[in-house]
Amino acid sequence: MPEIIDFSMVDKIIKETVAAIEVSKASLFDIAESAKSVQKRMQSDFEQVCEEVGRVIETVDRLEANYKKARIHLMDVSRDFTHYSEEDIKKAYLQAQEFQIKVAVEKEKEKGLRLKRDELARSIAKISEMSVKAEELVSKVDIALTFLSGNLAEFSQQMGGLQQKQLIGGRIILAQEAERKRVAREIHDGPAQAMANVVLRAELCEKLLKSDRAAIHEELHQLKLIVRESLQEVRRIIFNLRPMTLDDLGLVPTLRRFLEEIQARETETTVIHLEIHGEEKRLPNSYEIALFRLVQEGINNAHKHSHATQIKTMIDFLPEEITVRIIDNGVGFDYQKILNEVSGKESYGLLSMKERLELLNGKLLIQSAPNQGTTILASVPIE
């Protein structure tokens, strides 16, 4: 006789889980707000230090000009013994020495302020990154609470049915895609915050043009390189979250770009091949999303976990179905053991692939063993 599930116990466990997540959400929110407050204070300190650096530079320029005049006066006095006494020479010497000391003191002050400015810039970047991560975690916790805080009794009763399972899986996947779109749009529309420190430093460089043009030119060149690298990184993040080309161009062009970017970063460690068989054609959006995420997860697993040096992806467009094969020569893994580790990242990725395909009436087959590589075979029927 099959074991009867005590749904009241399931309901109690889920409610306790919801309560624990609520507490965690509040803590994460406090961390995010604290990080914003610290970032704002650091930004204010950074701007003040930049202003101080500008003022010190102006002071150094003025003192150096006075020191230069004092040295010229000292030379004139030292050569003309008829018009100037020994006391006049001593006075001119002391005046030149005083300006020299003041210049050295101000330059040392400028050096200290520059170090403080650079340290503040690094700290602002770190606290900004922590703030973004905390906000992302709060958003993900909100999604979990949305599903867990629903009708728990009804949820427990529907767990056993395939139709209900597909419904729940579909809602989760749609929520994931909606979240990816939201984050991608925010990053795409608002990169100004990430570049704020670069802009401030560039403005400071403009003030420094009068004193050391060669050094400023080099610093501006480095700033341009940083901006270009940051822009490339933002574009890469946007592509990973939600490739715009998936909607505009379709599955195959998006996969080509995705694999080319990975290959470009891993030219010395991994060789990636893509083969397309049959006539390429556009598929319904849900199909293209599922198949792209399948390849993305498979390639990332092969690269990060299997440490493969050869990865081959083959897509076959057949009259009644489309098949995807991902083959690597990595270290492999015990497939059943990974699935049993429900809390592991690898098991989550594999289950996500399987659920996406099941929603499209597709099938997923994974063949792997330690030190024998991995083969992922997926097939989805198409009308």
From TrEMBL:
<dbReference type="Pfam" id="PF02518">
    <property type="entry name" value="HATPase_c"/>
</dbReference>
<keyword id="KW-0418">Kinase</keyword>
<keyword id="KW-0808">Transferase</keyword>
<dbReference type="InterPro" id="IPR050482">
    <property type="entry name" value="Sensor_HK_TwoCompSys"/>
</dbReference>
<dbReference type="InterPro" id="IPR036890">
    <property type="entry name" value="HATPase_C_sf"/>
</dbReference>
<dbReference type="InterPro" id="IPR005467">
    <property type="entry name" value="His_kinase_dom"/>
</dbReference>
<dbReference type="Pfam" id="PF07730">
    <property type="entry name" value="HisKA_3"/>
</dbReference>
<dbReference type="GO" id="GO:0000155">
    <property type="term" value="F:phosphorelay sensor kinase activity"/>
</dbReference>
<protein>
    <recommendedName>
        <fullName>histidine kinase</fullName>
        <ecNumber>2.7.13.3</ecNumber>
    </recommendedName>
</protein>
<feature type="domain" description="Histidine kinase">
    <location>
        <begin position="182"/>
        <end position="383"/>
    </location>
</feature>
<dbReference type="InterPro" id="IPR011712">
    <property type="entry name" value="Sig_transdc_His_kin_sub3_dim/P"/>
</dbReference>
<dbReference type="InterPro" id="IPR003594">
    <property type="entry name" value="HATPase_dom"/>
</dbReference>
<keyword id="KW-0902">Two-component regulatory system</keyword>
<dbReference type="GO" id="GO:0016020">
    <property type="term" value="C:membrane"/>
</dbReference>
<dbReference type="Pfam" id="PF05384">
    <property type="entry name" value="DegS"/>
</dbReference>
<dbReference type="InterPro" id="IPR008595">
    <property type="entry name" value="DegS"/>
</dbReference>
<dbReference type="GO" id="GO:0046983">
    <property type="term" value="F:protein dimerization activity"/>
</dbReference>
<dbReference type="InterPro" id="IPR016381">
    <property type="entry name" value="Sig_transdc_His_kinase_DegS"/>
</dbReference>
